[in-house]
Amino acid sequence: MISAVVPFYANPELHTHARFSLPLCLEPLLAHEKMKEIILVDDGSTINLEINASPKIRYYRIAHHGVGNARNIGIAKATQPYLLILDSDIIVSKQLIDAFVDNLNGGADIACVGYVETYINSIWDKCEELYWRYNESLPGKWWLSCGCMMTKREVFDAMRFESETLSDEDTVFSRKAKESNLKTVTLPLTAKHVFAATLQALRRKWFYGGKRVALSRTRTLAQTVKSTLLSPIFALKLAAKYRYPMLIPFITIRSLTFFEGFTSAFK
User: Fold this and answer.
1) Count of Cβ atoms closer than 10 Å to residue 233 Cβ
2) pLDDT tens digits for range 150-175
3) Nearest CA to 128 among 235, 247, 259?
4) Phi–psi pair at 3, nearest 5 degrees
5) Assign residue 144 a region: left if phi > 0, alpha if psi is -120 to 50, beta otherwise?
6) What separation in angstroms does the CA of 144 have from each of 5, 159, 222?
7) How many domains does the chain contain in total?
8) Quick check: helix, strand or coil at residue 96?
């Protein structure tokens, strides 16, 4: 049986759109017969959300400290042997949940999706989907899609998400999983991601993402400068690969905005 752990942070100053995405996220979880509990962890939202009343849902509100900390708190509250770790803007299907369960029953410690597809259809959403499709579907990748994965309970008896970082907690967790020689499976299935639909919303996301990475100290200034300088080459490569020219301004603006957010943390 399954416990779903879904942290969320609703703040109008950021890119978050939990008011819209959270009900979509919860719908398939509430309907699945093996989903025994859904643990919602409100990571100190600054706006109130109406949460659907259901005997499956357990709600906890905590002080804002980042998604890694919120996931850890939700995991500590979970009671079932299988844990579905899910971001509040991800929509999973019954087929995907069943496939996760089948793979864990087959011996995997962690099962995750290859990449996520856009839920809202716009130019910028398509760019973000293709960007993540490239990054998440590379052969032999070590990075796990921690915002949409199922694990065995015992995985978290030995390790947790990084609680002291505001960003990049997935990168740190993935490294720990690799070092621990956990058996991970990337499924040839996708989930839906409720992306921000406008360039303005995405720029807020990238800016605050860069700022949070700097404050979390998970990347150095030199690494950020290098990735910014190489972004035009990367943009041309992806635009040619997917035959989607809008990836060029998308990746360029993304990299520059992330760098702006990163450097703002030191002012």
Assistant:
1) 10
2) 999 999 988 899 888 777 788 888 88
3) 247
4) -110, 130
5) beta
6) 17, 15, 24
7) 2
8) helix
